[in-house]
């Protein structure tokens, strides 16, 4: 699993938004989902400045979607270089569970609200 990201550009508050897509091979969906849940737990435990780390299943596209929000560029870089992410990427590569390399994009927030 490779995680190539474009330039980490923060919003006007310094925060960084990312979206990643993981396409499992046929019959490997449950393995990918379990791995992503494990990774999310590691992020929650070890990355206090990662503000949001959400994992979704997109049934229509057949992909796992990960949408983190980082407090700043340094936090996003720390995640990218974290031991738990590197280990998850290694396990994914060794297990041959992805149909294609992950697609990762940095997003630019245009507007939002939370209720």
UniProtKB/TrEMBL annotation:
What Gene3D superfamilies does the annotation carry?
3.30.70.100
Which residues are in the ABM domain?
16-91
- Protein's name according to its UniProt entry: ABM domain-containing protein
| Organism, scientific name | Rhizodiscina lignyota
């Amino acid at each position: 699993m490779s995680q190539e990201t474009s330039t980490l550009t923060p919003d006007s508050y310094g925060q960084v938004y990312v979206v990643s897509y993981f396409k499992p091979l046929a019959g490997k969906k449950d393995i990918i989902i379990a791995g992503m849940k494990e990774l999310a737990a590691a992020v929650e435990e070890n990355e206090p400045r990662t503000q949001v780390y959400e994992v979704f299943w997109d049934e229509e596209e057949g992909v796992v979607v990960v949408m983190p929000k980082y407090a700043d560029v340094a936090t996003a870089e720390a995640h990218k270089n974290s031991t738990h992410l590197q280990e998850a990427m290694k396990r994914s590569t060794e297990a041959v569970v992805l149909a294609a390399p992950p697609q990762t994009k940095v997003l630019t927030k245009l507007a939002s609200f939370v209720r």
